[in-house]
Amino acid sequence: MKYIILVHIDNEILMCIRSEKKTKSEVSLQEPIGIDKEGNEITLTDILGTDEDAVLDEVDLKIKIKKLYDKMSHSLKDREKKIILLRYGLTEEGCKTQREIAKLLGISRSYVSRIEKKAVQKLNKAFERGN
Length: 131
Fold this sequence. Notes:
This protein is mainly α. It has six helices and two strands, in the order αββααααα. It has a two-stranded antiparallel ribbon.
């Protein structure tokens, strides 16, 4: 239940940041976003009621995940992308072994290994280039 609440909070933060991004290039967790009943300014960290570093880490993780998916969509072929998604648990199903992926795709485990290695190398190059 706590995880669901945190996911909801993350989504609310991201929605707030996206809506603010249209009018502003940066959003601070300490910047006032409204006023409470007593007339005091409210910040995002006031609403969240959690450690600011934890919030920043979570937002940073979301940004990195978005970059990863972007690099995958521009750098990898469909089969490579599917293997990376399955292998590293980037799907709802969680991590799969090379053997499980091989069975799912109807190819050998060693071929899955080669494709995975090649895909990881492509992603490393994509991140090094910064594209």
